[in-house]
Give the backbone structure.
Amino acid sequence: MVPVFVHSPEEEQQWAAGAASRWWQHHSLVSLEHSIKKSGGRLVVRRGPSLATLRQLVQQTNATLVCWNKLYEPAALERDAQVAKALRADDVTVEQFNSTLLFEPGTILNGQQLPYRVFTPFWRTVEKQLAMLPAPRRAPRKLPAIERSLASIPIGQLSLLPKVRWDEGLAECWTPGERGALEQLRSFGRHVARYPSGRDRPDNADTSRLSPHLHFGEIGPRQIVAELRHHDAYLRQIGWREFAHHLLFHFPATTDKPLDARFAKQRWQRSRAQLEAWQRGLTGIPLVDAGMRELWRTGWMHNRVRMIVASLLTKNLQIDWRTGARWFWDTLVDADLANNTLGWQWVAGCGADAAPYYRIFNPVLQAKRFDPQRRYIRRWLPEIARLPDRWIHEPWAAPEAVLQSAGVQLGVTYPRPIVNLGESRMRALGVYSELI
């Protein structure tokens, strides 16, 4: 057996991995290489294109069988189909497996044999079949040695790490690789009982933080289900991930087009200044800024805050959801095409099972409810940390004496809001009333 990684980002078309994902991929490959070496084998690393590289390896090893685990993004499906067809034409046996999802896309359909477009009935159908999932197998303890003459390039030559080292925060927060994934699963398992009540609190560590490990295949959803089978609230989130991938399989155009065709005629605003303020965490709206700075520093953002920052961009600022999706794609370590697409279309109101168009998150009320001790905002916005609890969620409303006492000068040490939340909400409702 020859374990192979073929690096061919050009085959991912317009959705080649972003900077944060490349950082994770580098360290994940290093971890995989170490694990295989420890078991007696060797990871062969090559640059693509995939078909030419695999054909070369087949010739060099006299291989009769090529196996891989499937990816279900549109470009990956197209590439894999072409590679499989060509290798079979070369009289090579090809076997493809599903390790990414609980069930193959196309196997979970409604009574009319059509794909689900609403999550709850989708999840009910999936739940009934969870007991039929095969038990995960242990990894092999021993792998066969690979001849040193079989060429492989160092992982560092793939140039996945940033040239300007902005990744210190990522390294402090994450341990890419299978070992890190299993440690994170065990850690989450010790406090998973807190998940139903704590999952919406960005100031607490009550979420699993398994999403990047899932995306990079360092752990599989069946492993998680086997470990946490009786924790329905969390398994439902694994179901959302499953739903996203099944949707993308059936509706591949949704990466760039709204699933709800009524929203295709929406006219978006193009304010570079507002977009950059949102990206940099300088909107003047504390919960939004805290989330965007957490994203930039750690490559991750709490899901509740993801919804809030996306709502501000798409509804209050009326900036295209695809612009936000692209920013998340480049900055998230768990950037996943299916999840990213579903999430942004859900918030924008134009996707499957979407939030109603009139649901416009109020970041002040959301902060008061889900950051009640103000820990999250104070952690990520030190320039306003001395404001009293009453005013820290909306410093623009604080009396001048309070601002001065806390060392806050609006427009200087912390920005004034780039948008009026109430007025922009009414404008958004007017736009949507013309679309629906």
Summary: The beta strands are 4-7, 44-47, 65-69, 93-97.
